[in-house]
Amino acid sequence: xxxxxxxxxxxxxxxxxxxxxxxxxxxxxxxxxxxxxxxxxxxxxxxxxxxxxxxxxxxxxxxxxxxxxxxxxxxxxxxxxxxxxxxxxxxxxxxxxxxxxxxxxxxxxxxxxxxxxxxxxxxxxxxxxxxxxxxxxxxxxxxxxxxxxxxxxxxxxxxxxxxxxxxxxxxxxxxxxxxxxxxxxxxxxxxxxxxxxxxxxxxxxxxxxxxxxxxxxxxxxxxxxxxxxxxxxxxxxxxxxxxxxxxxxxxxxxxxxxxxxxxxxxxxxxxxxxxxxxxxxxxxxxxxxxxxxxxxxxxxxxxxxxxxxxxxxxxxxxxxxxxxxxxxxxxxxxxxxxxxxxxxxxxxxxxxxxxxxxxxxxxxxxxxxxxxxxxxxxxxxxxxxxxxxxxxxxxxxxxxxxxxxxxxxxxxxxxxxxxxxxxxxxxxxxxxxxxxxxxxxxxxxxxxxxxxxxxxxxxxxxxxxxxxxxxxxxxxxxxxxxxxxxxxxxxxxxxxxxxxxxxxxxxxxxxxxxxxxxxxxxxxxxxxxxxxxxxxxxxxxxxxxxxxxxxxxxxxxxxxxxxxxxxxxxxxxxxxxxxxxxxxxxxxxxxxxxxxxxxxxxxxxxxxxxxxxxxxxxxxxxxxxxxxxxxxxxxxxxxxxxxxxxxxxxxxxxxxxxxxxxxxxxxxxx
Amino acid sequence: xxxxxxxxxxxxxxxxxxxxxxxxxxxxxxxxxxxxxxxxxxxxxxxxxxxxxxxxxxxxxxxxxxxxxxxxxxxxxxxxxxxxxxxxxxxxxxxxxxxxxxxxxxxxxxxxxxxxxxxxxxxxxxxxxxxxxxxxxxxxxxxxxxxxxxxxxxxxxxxxxxxxxxxxxxxxxxxxxxxxxxxxxxxxxxxxxxxxxxxxxxxxxxxxxxxxxxxxxxxxxxxxxxxxxxxxxxxxxxxxxxxxxxxxxxxxxxxxxxxxxxxxxxxxxxxxxxxxxxxxxxxxxxxxxxxxxxxxxxxxxxxxxxxxxxxxxxxxxxxxxxxxxxxxxxxxx
Lengths: 670, 333
Hints:
The complex is a heterodimer. By secondary structure, chain A is an alpha+beta fold.
């Protein structure tokens, strides 16, 4: 902040005129001395006093001079104020300002010192410091937006909230932040004549028809590196946007955008780990890639990543049953978040499935495929044995993951997930409609894991019954005769009920096909899904990004899982509504371990950045962003504002005047 | 000066009259000179409660004086009264009426009966009515008149001979001699006629007074002593008198603790002499010291010459001054 004055703008004669003022004052001061006459009874005593004082009249003169000096100083201050001195200050936020501060992964880049986010925070802090009575709201955004501080004019609160903004490893999405900002800029204004409470007894806070909602104009500062897509279909309304660009447009970066493992098709016992590196710089870059398996260095390769391009890399990992793989690029660059990647190989566990069937070759065949063998171990018992003591104990023990009842319900429900085919569970909530001929499938809930990739448009069903599930159940297959497949929760388990069997028995006891489904490709897919979903052997998806939710599975009798984050914190996850464990605190990058009881790691999953858009840390090339139809030209820094000092000078002069008056009036001695 | 005051004071002796609103002195707007707090109120000279209080007092003289007329005061002189004092031998020419015929019959010798003489006391008050006395609230002059009236009333009540004059009293026109309670209204009337503005100096006034009144008695000088020629000459005249001299030095509160500020040109109201001052704490300190030295000087001067000195501030009520301070000094009893 340099002192930038207009002093130099004056020409020599103006200067001389100004410089003549103080001598003029001194001259006037001595010429003046217009003493106020005051009639007194007698000057007798006064004369004597003055005569006495003549001896030390220096003090008197000093005192007069003090006043003179003060007057000179006063005039100088006023002159200086008239010259309008100023300094260069940070831009002042307006009456209402909203700061959108990007804390996505790319803001951790160090091309701006110390980091882009820190620089952004510094710039915002400077503007907050120059806040002059207006109110400011702080919003941090990555792929979602978070209000760090609502509208306030307290600089302390704002600074504290600003300090609290931490970098995340998430991707960037501006629209969420814009929605929050626009929503918060609205306020209800009551017309003054309607300010009185309504006579109709309407509760306060409810909008009357004649109340208006007006958006209060606010300045919107988007402090970001601009690594987000232009925002479509959004009107800024009364927000007046400013884009403060952080970071350099030519910063190159090499990052890992994919890292996964795959079993070798030819040699299933061998694992292949493959990764993809992306280079966003203008120059080809050579990087060494180190692979650690369970913390031990396993392999190292050097690759050259072409400019503005990607390069795949592959490692062979032998004899690994379960492992945590860590890939690291060296040397690092200005964006370190994507220089590392993790992936895990989870132990393979077979689901234990019990099929209670009088003999169903179609079903058995569907559960007997090679893929089904990889997923589950299926044992078959006859319905007659179902009620035996041994089977009941087994069913109650929780050791079985899934029981499939084909055509006949048990008396008590097992401690396992169930699939009922052509029959309903013997518990409250489930009911079956009348058997009806020729139900036609209308709709399938493909979003549910059981129905993924299950296409049933070519399936005909001879007869079936509508299934009504308990509250909270989901309808998976709808027909013109009612729901044919529904799934509902039961104390941590899930029961799926299919409203038609695969055979019907005629009067003679001969079985005929009830449906063409077993002939279709969707049939084994469906049972594969069943084994995967209800068998509890769903593998955790790979490529989990920071901040996204992960569905975890656990043995059926567990209610609480514990997840150890890469930093070693334990987080409890309890079973959700749909009997799944959903874990969403995945903000850290690295390997998360899922621990069952007695802290035994049952499975692990890895969270990575894997976002080519974030890895490309070149800040927005074009200097503007587009929101709706509005083009916002970015600036690299807040506009320097001329800050006038004259107010302070005048205030100082006023203070001086008061002091002078005090000295004059109160007869203060020096 | 409002003449209603005297009537009120007289009437108040019997019954208390209505209270007169204070008379505000006219302010001259064209006058460029600020005035050092001119007197703005003129309260009554004597109010009934003061009179009632004063009635119980009497003037005391430490010296023995020869009165001219019979008074209520016991004199050292033997004279005509009912109180027997002594016998003495008859000498030819004595009044035959006073011969004690009883003792003549017994002893065959002529003795003359002598009785205690009751005499009057001469009380003189000399008021400084210069312009400088017309300052303060109440004005020093008013205060002086009030004081003189009070002491005069005490004298009148005891059938003493009272004369109140001013420094500028014309030589050929002496103030009336008052005697007896009935003269109260005359005294008040006379006092009310006294106006500030006399130009006679202190020494001159005292000298004239001494020439006019050569008798014995109690003499009270009421002045602010603000005379550029000094008070010493005036006091020396008094020393030569055989009177019991009291100097009552009247100062206004504003003189004792001046409330002034800024750069000022002080104008003397009497001789238009001006003094330029810049008010500051040291100057005010110096002023107070000068004033203290002035007062102390006057007091020492008086004490050394057998005169009584009393400093009276115009914010001390007259009744308090008379009944307390003057009583302590022995002027009244």
